[in-house]
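Dear colleague,

Thank you for sharing your sequence with our group. We've completed the structure prediction you requested, and as agreed, I am returning the results in plain text so they can be pasted directly into your records. Please verify that the sequence below matches your submission; if there's any discrepancy, let me know and we will rerun it promptly.
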Amino acid sequence: MKNISMVFVLLFFTTILTGCGQNTTIPLEADSMKGYELYSWKNGDEWNFSLLIGTNREKTIEEIQNAETTLKNISELNTTLEQLAPGQYISWSTKDSLAFPPAYLIEQVKQICAEQDLVLNIAK
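Please find the predicted structure tokens below.
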């Protein structure tokens, strides 16, 4: 009986602790009070993107390039942007090993943001 109680206590605390981690993935039709952070980097011949919920802290490269949040091309980014609520703010910046894609891809992102009534700020 004591072992069963201990298992339940451990499961309870594990559930609480894992629930405290910050989820930065985007739910469908997301509406974020702090907007979104967009990052981009080249991986081989493809441009990858990561669109994360805005926070008051700087994201790490590991968070940005996490396999669960990486959008593997401009098409996946466009599909994700279409899910955001109109009027949302998106800040696109780079750091460390990140970079902005060529101008034609930047223009595509600007266009989809304009069509979806999203406010895009590119910090070059």
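Summary note from our side: Strands lie at 36-43, 46-53, 70-71, 89-92, 119-122.

Kind regards,
the structure core
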